[in-house]
Fold this protein.
Amino acid sequence: MTIERVSEFPSLSIIRHPLIQHKLTILRNRETPTKTFKELVDEIAMLMAYEATIELGLEPMEVETPLEKTIGAHITGKKLTLVPILRAGLGMVEGILRLIPAARVGHIGLYRDHDTLEPVDYYFKVPGDAPEREFFVLDPMLATGGSAVAAVSALKRAGANRIRFLCLVAAPQGVGRLAKAHPDVTIYVAALDRELNSVGYILPGLGDAGDRLFGTR
Ligand code: PRP
Ligand code: URA
């Protein structure tokens, strides 16, 4: 089993798969160029999605092979929905879509005000039948937790009630804030880092995920 649990945060799962940890270390490296950074975010997101979907429900389904009929299985319910938090969450979408090509994709636009560190929202679009869907909110970074809490709250206002949160690197403060505001949301991370610095960056972290993904530093 590659999932590690932490008693302080019952809703948190740390995915310790060796491939994820190897790729994450390259991602942290300040010398890693934008192209490689983007490829690694994509690959790590795909590997994380494999673990984060382990509890999806299945129902039997008849299938006809070239030789005979048999009973297979398919995932129950409506199409899964990925919801990247703009901008950096966009880097996680394509990798997960390679695993789950039929998934729908919503978008939540939020940025963190540099002075207050509080999220400012500017866009929201998800499928209309939210109460019937499983949602995966995507953001590489969970720092103060303000953006994650705002994104999950917005999804719940739209009717969503089955939400998982996938992020690459989290700070304890952000996990605590998200877990307190939304204890029903399972949080999957590749790493739980030490702390935030005085301007809200995760230490040791990987820097500004959006800037490193899109080359905008
Ligand atoms: C980053 C990151 C998260 C947020 C995390 O986005 O992608 O959305 O910060 O910080 P928090 O947990 O303290 O809210 P940013 O605001 O830099 O926007 P960007 O993705 O557009 O660069
Ligand atoms: N957002 C980032 O991109 N990186 C951090 O360390 C914190 C917030």
Observations:
- The mean pLDDT is 96.
- The first strand starts at residue 3 and ends at 6.
